[in-house]
Amino acid sequence: MTTVTSTSATGTAAAPAKTGWASLGATDFLKMLTAQLQNQDPTSPVDNTQMVAQLAQFSSLSNSTEMNSTLSAISDKLDKLNTASASNADVAATLKTISQQLAAIGAAQAAAGTTGTTAGGTTATTAA
């Protein structure tokens, strides 16, 4: 099967048109059901149980399609969450490394008895 992509008035590509069974929806089902009822043999109408079975099958298919869409949306959100979690883990690891490096620099300065500037901007001298 081939898909057709139409362009809108603005020149941007629209979503690909659905083909085959994927293009059928509730409206199409109701049209087919109405046509079936109009064209049935009046001397031998469709059995009520068959009609109910068809409606139940369509309802089941509709629910399955909706559930599939919902699960796809949940999957997309979980992927985004996993990506964000991985990014946060990378940031945390980087901050830990920077903290360790700053602690090592502070320890080296303290051991050497050098002076440094505190967070308030005052100069502090360490005694050796």
TrEMBL record:
InterPro entries: FlgD. The lineage of its organism: Bacteria, Pseudomonadati, Pseudomonadota, Alphaproteobacteria, Sphingomonadales. Required for flagellar hook formation. May act as a scaffolding protein. It comes from Novosphingobium capsulatum. Keywords: Bacterial flagellum biogenesis, Cell projection, Cilium, Flagellum. It holds the Pfam family FlgD. This is Basal-body rod modification protein FlgD. Belongs to the FlgD family.
